[in-house]
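Obj: model holo form, ligand = glutamine.
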Amino acid sequence: MAKYIFITGGVVSSLGKGVAAASCGALLQSRGYSVHARKFDPYLNIDPGTMSPFQHGEVYVTNDGFETDLDLGYYERFLGVRLSRNDSVSGGRIYWDVLNAERHGDYLGATVQMIPHVSNKIKEYIAAPTDTDFVVCEIGGTVGDIEGKIFLESIRQFANDVGRKNVMFVHLTLAPYLDKSGELKTKPTQMSVRELLENGIQADMLIVRTPRMLTSDERAKIGMFCNLPAKNVISGIDVDNIYKIPLAYDAQHVFDIIADHFDLPNAAGNMDKFQRIEHYLSADLPHVKIGVVGKYFDVPDAYKSLNEALFHAGIQNNVHVDIEKINAEHFSSASAAGCDGILVPGGFGTRGVNGKIAAATYARETGTPYMGICLGMQVAVIDFARNVLGIENADSTEFSKNCTPVINIMPDHDAADMGGTLRLGAYPCVITPDTLAHKIYGETQISERHRHRYEMDMSFADQFERAGMIISGRSPDGRLPEIVELKNHPFFIAGQFHPEFQSGPYHGHPMFNAFIAAAVRHTGK
Ligand code: GLN
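Output (holo structure tokens):
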């Protein structure tokens, strides 16, 4: 049976539980243990797909086509694992399951109650088999939230069911620094741990978010009030890059604390891959400037995976990538001047789309490296249709009803029979040999994740290809376009999918790596 580490948070939200969970997992991996990660979100939405990106940042998509919380992105990137719909479970989904079972008569006349029916359902999801040594489970929200109570109750029961030695409770809190008194205040942490204890959960390790390292006196004080050894009180200090966190934890012997708890042999970890990132961050390297032409810049996390993927590709190319946020609604050649590459990310709706088309035109005409993601491919197709093929009213039916639809909801679209809902998750793509796409991926069979409704209409394919826009990736049956590229251009490629979801800090992603390499070449000009 796997061993479980539960991550909870108290005092305030947004303490970075996801990164903390991922970092604990990374420490275990560095000692050779296999790790799976799960997130439980107590809110009542059935899944995060319906939640506004303006509230929740990016919607992350798993291989199996589930729209999840962006914390799953941290897990996949840090741990290199592939997660699924059963690894992102909300309160709403739990109640939905329970109520459906009730309607189905599964409870055989019993009174359906929070305990045991809801708590058992939560425990079922927690215990879903993995073939890993550890499962790191993050409980979303903040201790004290009403909807979170049943989740705390369930992990308490779970620890009792499987044995306290097989479960570790890690709690994140905040120690605010008061300027006036010049002190770090530990009281909120004490109160948060007490609240957890009221739910029958004794924290085994505390990660206290603070602006500076805790002193040994402060750790002793927190340990004394919170009923755990001072050595199990860790400083979660602010760092300028999340990949420094595993190193910060390692320096504070977090693995040893975990090992003590589970009776694992103490071992030094191989932290090379994090050290490599740390060196990269402090190295004096050339910079490339990438113009990202988007519209959700007011939401800090809206382009999370995209920013990550550009960062990863910078590591692979030994350059620092500076992102120039270009508001699509105000795109002009002047706003893009000085950029070594133009990237148009995914997006929905008419607002800003003309600027995105203009960005594709600009990159095509000026020979600036271009990478298009999803909508970024569709606008490249629209630009090409209008300005090279001369189809003046070429457009997507998403933006115009009276157009020549080069982008449309296609009958072959798997999701078309579901009323044009999103095509979601990983789909295979076959790459045409001897194309840029082939050079980038180095293979002809790839799989990438999708989240879109519209597709390029392949009845235009010949026309496009004759004029120099090659369809270099297609669905295996050849009917859906996956990648387009320009023949006579230093670097112009776009995919109908979201490669950013498969990029990781240790290897990057082939398409992003090649794009940044092209941007580097462009600076050399
Ligand atoms: N709005 C476009 C579509 O639905 C693109 C979506 C996206 O970029 N993710 O096809």
